[in-house]
Write a structure and sequence with these properties.
single chain; 544 residues; alpha+beta
């Protein structure tokens, strides 16, 4: 028996089982986290049923049932397992002052799901749950009763959304273009004044151009005023579960549904529409409502700029260390330094990026190329370029190590064969060794993208903001604006989850943003993996 146990330990089978158990545990933990995120994130889009409860104190509540739990320390002889309570999202924040409410189960006399209950998604104050009582045009009642008013409400909401789209188009595109031209003209005038040409005819023409632009601006403002008045022409009279009335302008309604009267197909359609809206719309209500498109765009664009910056530097450094440098003490020290650089806390890189890129490099660029804009900084403040370069520094050790691994896997015969055929060192590097090592380089890029996408701390010092007024990419020359601040999915999670005054209402958005962030990481990695696999097929001779 002793010999068998000794033989078992000597065989190493026990350590194989330990390794297998560790891998299985790690996969289970990762899978559990992903499942938790998916359940809470994907469930956010489903139109939940509205439950109306009659309580023993004579009041009624209407809302979405969110959960049930045992009240702590509530065990009594009558309730040996403890009392239970349910959580409902009751909405109507402007009426009740809160979005969620806990109700003891023993206080509920009855519960039902009325088919005519309506869930309103509003532009402000969150959701409203209740019934439609009437629709007014000004002070005149144009429809009364739930059935008739509900029929008229749908087209009015659709018309109001079209008006909002027109208003947003005028504000963002037409007025945005005018503001851009006015600011450009103002900077040109300031540049001429700094050059001692403040009284030139160019300045006079630019001032006249600004005046004409201001007239166009005023015309658009008048148009906006008219569209805004049209939004308030119709209003809907709502009533909550206790009969309390609320008059709401139709222009404040984003969507209105009756989830209890919807079939499975309608709910699936609504689910898809909600999911698409989150991906494509702007945020509202301090990021707790609406979409996260600017955050998705900012995250992807930052990662792309970071990738463009980190790959050349990392690859060139790895080529020098592996192919050109004399292997010795100094190179070993450099490799140790590179490996240790990967362990430096990310906030340290953020402080470095703020001091070097923003203040030193950005301030110098402003002094040399944008003196007319001073004292307002152009590049001397946080922006997507500085954030991307900071993350490039953060991830460059990963690319260097992966590229060196790829270079070490290239057979020595390839180098010697290339040189023997008359190729120069550069030609051998570019045409033989680099293609063979390319899958390893892309592996480093995949790891860099994975880490950079989820980093938040350095970005908080170098350019990310809660709400960005404009995207870093638009139709104004030079089209890509590296100096602009941007939104990021990771910072959006931090802001909504920990900075929101209404944490409970913001919790679903945290899961949704986390889910989208995971999907973005997976998408970027899959794109890099597809490129790597294509390279592997193209260069089958690679030993990687």
């Amino acid at each position: 028996m002793t010999r068998e146990i000794k033989k078992f330990f000597d065989s190493g089978t026990l350590f194989v089982w330990f390794c297998g158990a560790a891998v299985a545990t790690s996969l289970l933990l990762v899978g559990g986290v992903l499942i938790l995120i998916m359940i809470n994130g994907l469930g956010f889009f489903w139109p939940h049923a509205l439950v109306e409860m009659q309580l023993k104190d004579g009041t009624k509540i209407l809302g979405e049932l969110k959960g049930e739990e045992v009240i702590p320390d509530s065990e009594t002889p009558q309730f040996p397992d403890g009392k239970t309570r349910v959580q409902l999202k009751i909405g109507n924040r402007d009426l009740y002052g809160l979005d969620f409410r806990w109700v003891d189960t023993d206080q509920i006399m009855s519960a039902e799901t009325p088919n005519d209950a309506v869930a309103f998604e509003r532009r402000e104050w969150g959701d409203f749950y209740g019934w439609v009582q009437a629709i007014k045009h000004g002070e005149e009642t144009v429809s009364s009763g739930h059935a008739e008013s509900w029929k008229r409400l749908g087209p009015l909401v659709e018309q109001a959304n079209e008006l909002h789209d027109n208003i947003e188009h005028i504000r963002r595109d037409e007025i945005g273009d005018i503001n851009h031209e006015i600011e450009s003209a103002r900077l040109k005038i300031r540049g001429l004044e700094l050059a001692g040409r403040g009284n030139s005819t160019d300045v006079v023409e630019l001032r006249q151009h600004i005046q004409s632009l201001e007239k166009e601006y005023q015309a658009h403002v008048d148009s906006l005023r008219g569209l805004t008045q049209r939004l308030d022409e119709y209003s809907v009279v709502l009533v909550d579960a206790n009969g309390q009335e609320k008059t709401l302008p139709v222009g404040q309604i984003v969507d209105a549904i009756r989830p209890n009267a919807m079939g499975t197909f309608d709910k699936i359609l609504t689910y898809c529409q909600n999911f698409w809206a989150v991906l494509t719309e702007e945020p509202r209500e301090a990021n707790t409502e609406g979409g996260i498109f600017p955050a998705i765009f900012g995250t992807v664009m930052m990662v792309l700029i970071m990738s463009v910056a980190v790959v050349p530097f990392g690859v060139l450094a790895a080529f020098y260390l592996r192919e050109y440098s004399k292997q010795g003490l100094i190179v070993r020290i450099v490799r140790i330094a590179v490996n240790n650089l990967a362990g430096v806390p990310s906030i340290v890189f953020g402080v470095f990026g703020l001091g070097f890129f923003v203040y030193a490099v950005g301030g110098t660029i402003d002094s040399l190329f944008y003196p007319e804009a001073l004292p307002n900084p152009t590049f001397g403040t946080g922006g997507i370029l500085w954030a991307s370069l900071t993350l490039a520094l953060l991830t460059v050790p990963v690319v260097i190590v992966a590229t060196e691994e790829g270079l070490s896997a290239v057979p020595r015969e390839y180098r010697e064969g290339s040189l023997a055929l008359g190729a120069t060192k550069i030609e051998s590097m570019v045409r033989v060794i680099l293609p063979c090592a390319l899958p390893g380089i892309l592996t480093g890029l995949i790891l860099a993208v994975s880490r950079a996408t989820g980093e938040v701390a350095p970005l908080m010092l170098t350019g990310v903001v809660k709400l960005a007024p404009a995207l870093p990419l638009d139709t104004h020359f030079p089209f890509v604006h590296f100096e602009r601040k941007f939104m990021h999915l990771g910072f959006h999670i931090f802001d909504v989850g920990f900075q929101s005054p209404n944490v409970e209402a913001a919790k679903p958005m945290v899961y949704v943003t986390t889910l989208i962030l995971v999907m973005v990481v997976i998408f970027l990695n899959l794109a890099a993996i597809a490129i790597r696999n294509h390279m592997r097929k193209k260069f089958r001779s690679s030993a990687i």
